[in-house]
Predict the structure.
Amino acid sequence: MDISVVIAVGDVEDRIGHDVRRIAQALSRRHLAFEILAIGDGTRDTSLPVLQVLRDEFPQLQVWGGSGPGRAFRRGSTHARGEWILLWDASATQGFPVSILGFTLAELARKDAFIIRRRLIAARRQAALPVLLSLVGKGDAYEYAFERQILAAGLRLGVRGPARRRSPSLLMRAVRGLLVE
């Protein structure tokens, strides 16, 4: 298995079927063996039943109910079998970033993990598994925790996208420190 795509599924019933089709088609065009693991992450709509219907069309798709908000990536990582793992929060973006998939895979050829801020996290599954199993959460906080732990583990990391925003309290402390000195 080449790639495991773990999708944290929120309330996205209107587009989740289309997104899964786009993912499957993009990976098939690249002749990659893949699986798509869709995990409920606080969904209260019919997103998971929509995905259950798609399983006949895409045998690579597995669908699980949630294990609590912010735990979808951890649960998906425990079941993933691919050499690479892609983490995508379906409710955080408007559609799977197919246009950057090739770029992301090329970066993984040189890195152990790669983050495209607010879009996608990708990693060599075996190298990143201890980190993936230790984290819970969503959004920016998850990305930054992933980044810190990957670097602390001594793994090679690439990051693209906007720099991390500092909280106002940290910024104010830094300004005060400069004024005092």
Observations:
- DSSP finds seven helices and seven strands in the chain.
